[in-house]
Design goal:
Length: 456
């Protein structure tokens, strides 16, 4: 049994039954049957379905947003924005995806030609997290449907209401039975599902531990896996940057989703020449952040996703201070029934601290002083993660240095890093491998078939 608890007040919302082995088998059978027909469907039919799903999201926007707010605590405004982003993704793949599947032809030096065809492969299992409970899944659903594959979702335990709505929207749009199904199972069931011959690949967004477990299970079955894991993204500010804009976006990057985002700017690395000015402005802005009722438009952030998650962050702060870091302010559990905490700033974090190998999934920023661009890059790369990065500089040469030398899958220049349907998303190092979104995300779970033709 899964229990859905509202982190804003600690009250149980609903309980959801766990699927039995027989029910899982039935869903796998339906997925296989759906794939037999869907793989042969015209791409135009697949694109039309995506538009119908987008229409369902549009018609149910308030209902979808409220469920996310209740189950994991994100502000209602951000939940609406997340649903809007999902709608944009469905439309993007419906409108531009068919062109991504047109075969390419290359002349061969030996004569004749090689054609590249992207073909579907089967049922893909998605293991997804709670922090962006719609968006993380939709960026899997949309390309999966367009590719001619079918999808099975194992969602996080605390967002089972969202998981049910994700399936409901696809079914309501008129999708074939079994095209996309929610699997209400716990983590212990995942290995057997991956081992099933009807599953051809796995995609996971989550923690390092979850990534290693799923990658190991998929590897034993010789099945492809895409991993989007944790991050401790650098947010680098250089003297040529617009300081006020950089500060404003640093606050937004750190507190969005109450700091529970893999690509939040978590480590603010500031050039020594502007460090004190940045610290003063950043401190003022972070102290002004209001944590409160996520349904209240005046709240800058809601509670953390659970009391357990809040306790994890609070313990990280205790250990950080024991390691020599200084908590300037904030980082405290707030009174009341919800899993709220105040935004805060850590300074003087030792570069060899164990905290540098962890991800703080809460509204706490770490602030570092860098003497020059070389030191800024060294600090940025001094972690096992390599997901995203954000750099603030108007110096073209500095921009090129950061693009070349920051070890990350993504770098945003003079803007906060964010995902979008058009651009590939993913990391390197212990932040995972493979890409979601864009053309690359569409092709990840497709068979790139080379077809050789004779000249003439």
């Amino acid at each position: 049994m899964f229990k859905s608890v509202n982190p804003a007040n600690g009250q149980e919302i609903a309980a959801y039954p766990e699927l039995s082995g027989a029910e899982v088998e039935d869903k796998l059978h339906k997925a296989a049957e759906a794939y037999r027909h869907w793989r042969e469907s015209p791409v135009s039919e697949r694109a039309a379905l995506l538009k119908k799903i987008a229409a369902q999201y549009e018609a149910n926007k308030d209902r979808l947003a409220r469920m996310a707010t209740m189950e994991m605590g994100k502000t209602y405004a951000s939940a609406v924005g997340e649903v809007d982003k999902c709608i944009a993704a469905f439309h993007h793949y419906a409108e531009h995806g068919p062109a991504m599947l047109v075969p390419l032809r290359h002349a061969l030096s030996t004569g004749g030609s090689a054609e590249l065809h992207w073909l579907p492969q089967g049922a893909v299992l998605a293991v997804m997290p709670w922090n962006f409970p719609y968006w993380q899944v939709v960026r899997f659903i949309a390309p999966t449907i367009l590719a001619g594959n079918v999808g099975l979702l194992k969602h996080a335990s605390n967002v089972q209401g969202v998981a049910g709505l994700l399936e409901e929207m696809v079914v309501a749009a008129g999708a074939p039975v079994g095209l996309f199904q929610n699997l209400s199972v716990k983590s212990k069931a995942v290995a057997d599902i991956i081992a099933d011959d009807r599953i051809v690949a796995v995609t996971l967004t989550g923690s390092e531990g979850a990534g290693m477990a799923v990658a190991g299970q998929a590897g034993r079955q010789l099945k492809k896996v895409v991993l989007e894991l944790g991050g401790s993204d650098p947010f680098i500010v250089m003297p040529s940057a617009d300081l006020d804009t950089a500060v404003r976006m640093a606050v937004k990057a750190r507190i969005q989703n109450t700091g529970q985002s893999c690509i939040c700017g978590k480590r603010m690395i500031v050039h020594a020449d502007i460090y004190e000015a940045f610290l003063a402005k950043f401190s003022t802005a972070m102290k002004a952040v209001k944590a409160g009722d996520p349904m209240d438009p005046a709240s800058d952030m809601g509670p953390l996703s659970s009391f357990e998650q809040r306790d994890t962050v609070l313990q990280q702060l205790v250990e950080a201070r024991q390691q020599g870091a200084k908590l300037l302010f904030g980082g405290e559990a707030l009174p009341g029934p919800g899993a709220y905490m105040s935004a805060g700033i850590l300074t003087e974090v030792p570069l060899d601290s164990p905290l540098m190998h962890e991800e703080i999934f809460g509204p706490i920023a770490m602030l570092f002083r860098a003497a020059n661009i070389d030191e800024a890059i060294r600090i940025a790369n001094n972690i096992p993660f390599g997901l995203g990065s954000s750099v603030w500089t108007n110096d073209a040469q500095e921009q090129q240095r950061f693009i070349r030398d920051i070890q990350a899958g993504m770098t945003a220049i003079n803007q906060m890093l964010a995902s979008s349907p058009e651009a590939p998303f993913g990391g390197i190092k212990r932040s995972g491998h493979g890409r979601e979104l864009g053309t690359h995300g569409l092709h990840e779970f497709m068979n790139l078939k080379t077809v050789l033709r004779v000249a003439g």
